Amino acid sequence: MAGKVAAACMLRVCHGRVWVTQEGLAEDFWIEGGDALILQPGGLIVIEAAVASLIAIESLAADRALWMRSFGTVLPRLLPGKA
């Protein structure tokens, strides 16, 4: 399959093995069942299965908001001079 994503997404390989190339990146990726890769927006993305595979492509928007809220509560404890 080939296409573009409008925003950064997470490609998860549920099972199988896929090859991924993204326009603008020098390297290609082999992703196996249980692994994930962030897809960058804008450029052409090509995904090919080496064997029968199941993939999921998920938006990062909700995950990013949750991560930022969680990180915001930890950050003050990590900065020097902050308790």
Gap between N and C termini: 50 Å
Helix content: 10-25%
Q: What is the CATH topology descriptor?
A: Jelly Rolls
The largest beta-sheet arranges its strands as 1-6-3-4
What is the succession of H and E elements? EEEEEEEH
Q: CATH top level?
A: Mainly Beta
SS class: alpha+beta
Total E-strand runs: 7
Total domain units: 1
Question: Per the principal axes of the C-alpha atoms, what is the gross shape?
Answer: globular
Q: Specify the biggest β-sheet.
A: 4 strands, antiparallel
Rg to the nearest angstrom?
16 Å
**Helical stretch count?**
1
Mean pLDDT: 81
What name goes with the CATH superfamily? Jelly Rolls
Q: Write the CATH architecture name.
A: Sandwich
| Binned strand content | 35-45%
Describe this structure in words.
There is one protein chain. The chain is an alpha+beta fold. The chain is built from one helix and seven strands, in the order βββββββα. It has one domain (2-78): Jelly Rolls. It has one helix at residues 61-78, and strands spanning 2-3, 9-15, 17-22, 29-32, 36-39, 45-49, 54-59. The protein has a four-stranded antiparallel β-sheet with strand order 1-6-3-4, with no helix packed on it. The chain has a three-stranded antiparallel β-sheet with strand order 5-2-7.
Give a short summary of the structure.
This protein has 83 residues and is of the alpha+beta class.
Notable characteristics:
single chain, 83 residues, alpha+beta, Jelly Rolls, 3-stranded antiparallel beta sheet, 1 helix
Task: Map the helices and strands.
Layout: E1 2-3, E2 9-15, E3 17-22, E4 29-32, E5 36-39, E6 45-49, E7 54-59, H1 61-78
Antiparallel strand pairs: 1-6, 2-5, 2-7, 3-4, 3-6
